[in-house]
Amino acid sequence: MSANPALVRTHANELCPAPFPQEVFVLRRHGVQIDLQGVQTRQKGWGARGALYLSNIRLVFVAEKADESGLVAFDFPLVYIRGDKLNQPIFGCNNLSGQCWPAVERGGPAGDLPPHDFKVYFKEGGIGTFYPLYYTLTERAKMAFAQLHGEGAGGGGGRQGGGADPNPPTYVAGLVSHAFVDPSDPSTVYLAERQPVDESQRLMHAPKYAANYGEDEAYEPMVPSAPPAPSAPPAPR
């Protein structure tokens, strides 16, 4: 997860993440609002409206406008998302909540930086197109990298070297071509042969995860220690 990933303009003149090598965009979902904690703003949090981009390797939020600190987009690697949950309240809009490890030095599941809490509110329309695609790609990513590093699937993970790609472009192309399109979901779905940006805008380097992934130690949240038990009164002489 990183602040302000490289952005480019789509064929429709919308801001979009610059694709990594072998990255395939699956959809764009407008009309969402994000609540993100632990980022470097004056409030140590970020609330903004904008659009979500889902690809085979990440989820990226792009705001309609930058905040006063210059923050305009955030990158959520699928392998670093954990505890994600779809919430469908009776009153209020559907929302996706969870945590994501920061993809920076000292970050990741083996680092000493805590994960970021996030919540994405879907302010316009349903989620019947977005959520099944998001869920499938994220679960495959987490399970594949958990197996690679011998961890439970729920803990998230990151690749530091080899390992098979859990969501290769060929798989994603088939997934998208058979995806259910919910008429109430305003997501724009991208076919493999009709990506939102020109191939010349593709980045030359692969995404970077936390450098310490795979080390023995793991982040543990700080909790208040239990008070010592009261000592027993001395026995009468």
Automatic annotation (TrEMBL):
From the record, give the transmembrane residue ranges: none
Q: Could you tell me which residues belong to the region Disordered?
A: 215-237
List, as start-end ranges, the regions of compositional bias called Pro residues. 224-237
Question: Which GO CC terms are listed, alphabetically?
Answer: nucleus
Q: Name one GO molecular function term.
A: transcription coactivator activity
Q: What is this protein called?
A: Uncharacterized protein
Lineage from the top down?
Answer: Eukaryota, Viridiplantae, Chlorophyta, core chlorophytes, Chlorophyceae
